[in-house]
Fold this sequence. Notes:
Helix content is 70%, strand content 0%. The protein is an all-alpha fold. It has one domain. Helix 2 (10-47) packs antiparallel against helix 3.
Amino acid sequence: MSIRNSLLSIDTWVRALYIVLFWILLSLVSWVLGAVVVVQFLIVLFTGERNAQLVKFGVNLGEYLKQIVEFVSFADDEKPFPFSDFPDSSLED
């Protein structure tokens, strides 16, 4: 594909808009992950045990972050959540 065709490709510019959207989501999800880390730490600190639901959510959040990074770096063409299902780990509850 020539440079001119690449510059005029609607698909390329639509992908750019998705990249901006997912870059913003990446920042927001990083903050959510930080909150999960702090809450989980406090739970372990005061109870001595991990919260299984937070562990599962953290794993799912990590998979979601991976999907975002793969999409914005062109390693994968499948758009992450909210354009596909949110990751669901197979961890036992």
